[in-house]
Amino acid sequence: NAGVMQNPRHLVRRRGQEARLRCSPVKGHSHVYWYRQLPEEGLKFMVYLQKENIIDESGMPKERFSAEFPKEGPSILRIQQVVRGDSAAYFCASSPGQGETQYFGPGTRLLVL
Amino acid sequence: RKEVEQDPGPFNVPEGATVAFNCTYSNSASQSFFWYRQDCRKEPKLLMSVYSSGNEDGRFTAQLNRASQYISLLIRDSKLSDSATYLCVVSRPLDNTDKLIFGTGTRLQVFP
Questions:
Q1: Of B68, B70, B81, nearest to B109 (Cα)?
Q2: Count of H helices and E strands in chain A?
Q3: Which letter does DSSP use for residue A97 in this model?
Q4: Nearest to A100, CA basis, from B56, B49, B105
């Protein structure tokens, strides 16, 4: 069974560009979570989605960040007009249901120059 | 104040040693508790869930004290491969949010 897949694994962007991070959950999992880990810090929750719905976006910055989990295809975390402070590892996790174990993908490391 | 607090370490221990990590959480509504392990530049991996009665998995023992809002992890007979960062994690799934709340982690380095 394939685990959570994320791509790209590494992404370099210049300030002002857009970053698109993709996450394919474990087959059969309908719950997706995005977390961000800044250098030398712990993981911080960003957003929790079920198919086509955002359940909790309390950890998402109000501007420039958006997330979706369409009926078909991977979940996308989109960062517009990136700034240096967006440089971090972005981890996606999936679970089969609420309260179930979350399994993490390998992460996307975003570097903003 | 962080919602989940851990001693960042590092803990440097010889092979075969017993080492204990502690963690406190501030929100008494927290309902689920976990220890995750994170290797350098890798994703977190679930080590074990933590139950009120305490639970053991091989060389690892986890304890939860709800009254003191305190979680612990004991590793016996440390191996070189135990070197990693150990993350204390809580969640409140009954609040209709499934988010995991992570501590910043405790680094363990086991030396020969």
A1: B81
A2: 0, 11
A3: S
A4: B49
